[in-house]
Amino acid sequence: MTAMTIRARIVDITTLAVDAIVNAANTNLEPGGGVCGAIHRAAGPELAIACARLAPCPTGEARITPGFSLPARFVIHAVGPIWHGGGHGEAELLASAYRASLALARAKELASIAFPAISTGIYGYPPAAATSIAVAAVRGEAGNHGTLREVLFACFSQDALDAYAAELRPPQA
Fold first, then answer.
1. Distance in angstroms (rounded) separating the CA atoms of residues 139 and 168
2. How far apart are CA 69 and CA 49, in angstroms?
3. Contacts of 9 (CB under 8 A, 6+ apart)
4. Average pLDDT over the chain, rounded to whole?
5. What does the alpha-carbon distance between residue 103 and residue 71 come to, in Å, rounded to a whole number?
6. Confidence band (pLDDT; 50, 70, 90) for 17?
7. Residue 88 reports pLDDT greater than 70
8. Cα separation of 145 and 148, whole Å?
9. Strand partners, 5
10. Which of 29, 104, 133, 152 lies at a C-alpha separation of 20 to 30 Å from 142?
11. Is the dihedral of CA 130, 119, 64, 69 positive or negative?
């Protein structure tokens, strides 16, 4: 079995020619702001129509649609939690959104997937905590990856890239 590569880089997720990109979606799977709005604009109006057929999507779960006009074959719509201070199950819901996305990628036998920093925009999740949860969730699924060979964290800024780079560094002996 081929090992799974996990990496991060600064890139516009809508430009990636991967099997699937992940959309930081809302529970109604409607076009929104931030990365969600950018993905919907790049994919074209067919994406909103496809999403409407699959809505609602509970927090911590994910749905999959074609990529339409995107270079990615599929869009996985993952609903992360809104930050309410950390005492309302946010960490588990965020990890669940990543695991649900990976499960859909496995079910479709995909080889590559790119994630944005789910819940860190208007949902207010502290970026450092969200990064740690994202990397741990992906690493936790590494043994179950099936055909998945590449996971990319698509970073919007140098600060985000630095946070992912720190989390992805091998543990010190």
1. 9
2. 13
3. 152, 153, 154, 155, 161
4. 95
5. 21
6. very high
7. yes
8. 5
9. 150
10. 29
11. negative
CA-closest candidate to residue 58, choices 86, 89, 33, 84: 89
As to burial, measured by CB atoms within 10 angstroms (0-12 exposed, 13-18 middle, 19+ buried), residue 127 is: middle
DSSP letter assigned to residue 109 = T
Helix axes 34-43, 45-54, angle to 10 degrees: 120
**Model pLDDT, residue 146:** 82
| Distance of alpha carbon 113 from alpha carbon 146, whole angstroms | 13
Contact 148, 113 (CB under 8 A): yes
Amino acid at 136: A
Please give the DSSP secondary-structure letter assigned to residue 106: H
The predicted model scores a pTM of 0.95
According to DSSP H, which parts of 23-157 are helical? 34-43, 45-54, 90-107, 127-141
Q: In degrees rounded to 5, what are phi and psi of residue 78?
A: -105, 130
pLDDT in tens, 98-135: 999 999 999 999 999 999 999 999 999 999 999 999 99
**Strand order from edge to edge, sheet including 5-10:** 5-10, 150-155, 112-115, 20-25, 74-79, 62-66
Q: How many CB atoms lie within 10 A of CB 55?
A: 14
* pLDDT confidence bin for 160, thresholds 50/70/90: very high
